[in-house]
Amino acid sequence: EGMILGQTLDLDAEGSQDITFAQLEDIDRYKTGCLIAAALEMAAVLAGHPEDRETMQEIGMKLGIEFQIQDDILDLTSTEEAMGKSLSDQERGKATFVSTLGLGSAREMVKDLDRRIRLLAGSLHMDPDRLVKVFDQLLNRSR
Hints:
The chain starts with a helix and ends with a helix. The protein has helices at residues 3-13, 21-46, 53-77, 80-83, 97-101, 103-122, 129-139. It has a single domain, classed as Farnesyl Diphosphate Synthase. It is an all-alpha fold. The longest helix is centred in the first third of the chain and has 26 residues, at 21-46. It has 7 helices and no strands. 27% of the residues are buried.
């Protein structure tokens, strides 16, 4: 019900031309969001703030989607050398947020998710500065 489900949904959708926006969100929420959410929830507990687990989970899920959309954008706008990996999503006909929404709308969605994530971080019972720096690194990455 997490990363493995997301990967399964992703593989099942590969080559499908009629994947929906909701299906793309589910894939990224499970595939990447669950991984990030688990790390953030554990960090909240280890930092002595178990009351932040739910918020950290929500941040992680949104961050997973944001990360994957940014990855889709970079797959289209970057090079294999810069990314350090094959940019084969288009070649495989893989549905992505960019192919579904268009590049401009995908970029706007990243900005909206980033704004919502930062609002959530501001509600934590701890100083979010270091966490926000990580968000910045993920958002502004080139690979």
